[in-house]
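Module 6 notes. Inverse folding takes a fixed backbone as the condition and produces residue identities as the prediction. Think of it as a translation problem where the source language is geometry and the target language is the twenty amino acids. Below is one complete input and output pair. Work through it position by position during the lab.
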């Protein structure tokens, strides 16, 4: 069995406070070993009664104290520092229980543990805590934070000692560094007019916006068959991962891959995207799956690119390079159909058809159908996906009697939406296909993007209309009578005063 113990490190705002670097394992003897190898051996070790071990990260980066100047509590966005206490061979297969000591005295006065949640520890406010580990608590959390005295680049050893109720103590270590290597990527411009068989180069440029150097870099591209082979890269069918173990990217430095990777994305959608990522390299990184290239090595070179640069919440978050195919799509509003459900209810069906030639919009979609009902109408039922228990609504109310429905039908297909309505005033129900500013359809026939149908007034509004009409007629008759009677009265009055 395994007990997972999590220690959390702080940050500011939406930044990740601590970044886990290295998926390595520290066995009891203290030697580093690749995580994948230990995972593969775990079952055999337990079956054979092998020695237990602690599994911890190799390096952990802390946010500096200055990063805590933002608003709000940064802890919800923190990354856990995991300590796994593997099966101690205790026979009853329960999770191990006992005492766990976390000691970062190498950084005494520069870091301190803080209480967080239901953990039971002694020594908060210092660099060493002693905690009770219960077999009924599979996840244990504590909280480590850099202090004002800590400087970017300061490092020390965090030592773990687990003392089970039965058996010998187990130990492991993690290197703790104040400051983080944070690589932010530059968003490449959209490539337009790209044919499905055409190769494109993916420019990967990044900047270290963190507080400490990144020692080694890993770059990856997915969903594209590469055209060239570099010996410091590993290739799979539609992805490539390249490692640069000797590169040091200091804070503020900007680098780019040279040459830019050439890939093909054969998907036929109107818009496509090629995901790519850059992250600091971890000492435990193995070359990964895939075949190694045989050509000249891919290089990282300095650049003066100005950005803007985007940093992701997690190291290795993917950016997207968008491709636009040289094709268009005619989205047609196919009409508005009304059918009476009862005396005061009407079913309204609206539809949008893709007449092609382009099909699936890909990441450019979905587009939207704007549906507007006459004033005074009450929408009793909106379209739903009955196969979904959550987020089943297919249309969202924008304001008043206006709704917005996502549409991305493939070529030759129609998407329909059914509403149940209690009509208000007489008027028109309209449906209009709206475009995306960033991903336009380039519609060759925009005239058919709109359709409408007359919608009868509801019973109450009909009554109000009749009442208002009678009042208007009565008022008109009264006004007319006054207009005729006034001149007549004047004539009579004049005749009386004649000699």
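Target side of the pair, the amino acids:
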């Amino acid at each position: 069995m395994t007990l997972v113990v999590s220690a959390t490190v702080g940050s500011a705002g939406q930044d990740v406070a601590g970044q886990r670097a290295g998926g390595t394992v520290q066995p009891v003897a203290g030697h580093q070993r690749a995580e994948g190898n230990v995972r593969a051996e775990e079952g055999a070790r337990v079956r054979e009664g092998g020695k237990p071990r602690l599994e911890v990260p190799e390096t952990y980066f802390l946010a500096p104290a200055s990063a805590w100047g933002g608003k709000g509590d940064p802890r919800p966005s923190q990354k856990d520092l995991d300590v796994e206490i593997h099966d101690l061979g205790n026979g009853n297969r329960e999770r191990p229980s006992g005492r766990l000591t976390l000691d970062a005295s190498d950084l005494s006065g520069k870091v301190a543990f803080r209480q967080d949640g239901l953990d039971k520890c002694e020594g908060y406010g210092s660099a060493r805590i002693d905690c009770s580990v219960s077999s009924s608590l599979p996840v244990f959390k504590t909280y480590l934070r850099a202090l004002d005295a800590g400087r970017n680049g300061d490092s020390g050893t965090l030592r773990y000692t687990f003392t089970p109720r039965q058996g010998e103590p187990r130990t492991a270590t993690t290197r703790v560094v104040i400051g983080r290597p944070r690589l932010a990527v530059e968003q490449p411009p959209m490539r337009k007019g790209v044919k499905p068989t055409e190769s494109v180069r993916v420019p990967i440029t990044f900047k270290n916006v963190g507080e400490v150097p990144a020692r080694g870099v890993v770059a990856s591209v997915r969903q594209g068959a590469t055209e060239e082979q570099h010996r410091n890269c590993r290739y799979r069918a539609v992805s490539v991962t390249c490692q640069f173990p000797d590169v040091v990217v200091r804070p503020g430095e900007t680098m780019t891959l040279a040459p830019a990777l050439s890939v093909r994305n054969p998907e036929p959608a109107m818009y496509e995207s090629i995901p790519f990522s850059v992250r600091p390299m971890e000492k435990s990184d193995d070359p990964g799956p895939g075949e190694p290239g045989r050509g000249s090595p891919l290089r990282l070179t300095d650049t003066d690119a100005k950005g803007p640069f985007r940093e992701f919440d997690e190291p290795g978050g993917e950016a997207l390079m968008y491709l636009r195919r040289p094709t268009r799509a005619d989205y047609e509003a196919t009409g508005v159909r009304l059918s009476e459900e009862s005396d005061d209810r009407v079913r309204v069906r609206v539809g949008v058809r893709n007449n092609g030639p382009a099909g699936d919009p890909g990441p450019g979609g979905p587009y939207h159908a704007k549906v507007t009902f006459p004033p005074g109408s009450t929408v009793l039922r909106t379209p739903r996906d009955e196969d979904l228990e959550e987020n089943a609504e297919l249309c969202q109310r924008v304001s008043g009697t206006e709704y917005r429905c996502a549409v991305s039908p493939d070529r030759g297909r129609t998407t329909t939406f059914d509403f149940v309505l209690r009509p208000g005033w007489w008027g028109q129900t309209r449906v209009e296909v709206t475009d995306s500013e960033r991903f336009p359809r380039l519609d060759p026939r925009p005239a058919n993007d709109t359709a409408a149908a007359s919608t009868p007034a509801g019973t109450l509004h009909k009554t109000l209309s009749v009442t208002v009409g009678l009042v208007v007629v009565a008022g008109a008759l009264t006004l007319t009578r006054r207009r005729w009677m006034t001149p007549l009265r004047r004539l009579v009055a004049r005749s009386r005063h004649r000699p």
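Reference fact for the lab report: The first helix runs from residue 35 to 47.
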